[in-house]
Design goal:
263 residues, alpha/beta, D-Maltodextrin-Binding Protein, domain 2, 39% helix, ligand-gated monoatomic ion channel activity, SBP_3_CS, signal, Iontro_rcpt_C
Length: 263
């Protein structure tokens, strides 16, 4: 019996020695946290006129890397291929304004949400009297658009399925499709639309600002990396209580100085 228990103990020790330490431990050892993102989502991640990636989520990640004592490396990746890129080790985690959906959760683990947003509408000004909510767009006479691979596209196809849909690889092209009268409405997250209506709307868009979905945004990791999730969740809890989160949030959502960097 003692021999049997000793064998079990040795086996357990061997297995524990083979266990993967996790993304956070690997980043600390390498000195770099690699994060995949598509930098086209104002004000979360975007490229300024100097070619630098800036934004709300970028600043959260900078604070995260600083807490780990490592440098931050942002890996630009198209949004529709960002999950496969994570799973093939192109970077360590996803930080790209990703909505935590049940479908995505089957493929990834997610941290606790760092913000909650919802889908809203940018509508052609000529339709302001006709379109009061997403339900009014659910008709074959209307053409709607969003960015491919996002929850905007998912919501368009699920809740506004009767309308004609054409997606684009980036938000700007989709918004301009409405500005130019080729589409009737753009479906996207509220924080982006509140900026886009003034920055790209050219006075031709109406912003319907009442969110019609619930969308928690979170960081995405490979499945099974619970130690890293524990660290990230504790980090998010810390910055929510020490003033860091409030300061970063105010910079991007309550102030407008950053818009000058995008001109």
């Amino acid at each position: 019996m003692k021999k049997f228990l000793a064998t079990l103990l040795l086996s357990a020790c061997a297995l524990s020695g083979l266990a993967h330490a996790g993304m956070i431990d690997d980043a600390v050892k390498s000195g770099t946290l690699r994060v995949g993102m598509d930098p086209t989502y104002m004000p979360f991640e975007m490229t300024n006129k100097r070619g630098e990636i800036i934004g709300f989520e970028v600043d959260l990640l900078k604070a995260m890397a600083k807490s780990m004592g490592v440098k931050l490396e942002l890996v630009s990746t198209s949004y529709d291929g960002i999950i496969p890129a994570l799973l093939t080790n192109k970077f360590d985690m996803i930080g790209s304004g990703m909505t935590l959906t049940q479908e995505r959760n089957l493929r990834l683990n997610f941290s606790e949400p760092f913000i909650v947003v919802g889908q809203t509408l940018l509508v052609r000004k000529e339709l302001a009297d006709k379109i009061k909510s997403y339900k009014d767009l659910n008709d074959a006479q209307y053409r709607i658009t969003s960015k491919i691979g996002t929850t905007g596209e998912m919501v368009a196809k699920k809740l506004i399925a009767k309308a004609q849909y054409h997606g684009f690889d980036n938000e700007q092209e989709a918004v301009m499709d409405v500005v130019n009268g080729k589409a009737d409405a753009f479906i996207y997250d509220a924080p982006y639309n509140v900026v886009a209506v003034n920055k790209a709307g050219a006075g031709k868009l109406v912003y319907l600002d009442e969110p019609f979905t619930y969308e928690p945004l979170a960081f995405g990791l490979k499945k099974g990396d619970y130690d890293s999730l524990n660290w990230i969740n504790n980090f998010l809890n810390q910055i929510h209580h020490d003033g860091t989160y409030e300061r970063i949030h105010a910079k991007w959502f309550k102030k407008t100085e950053w818009l000058k960097e995008m001109e």
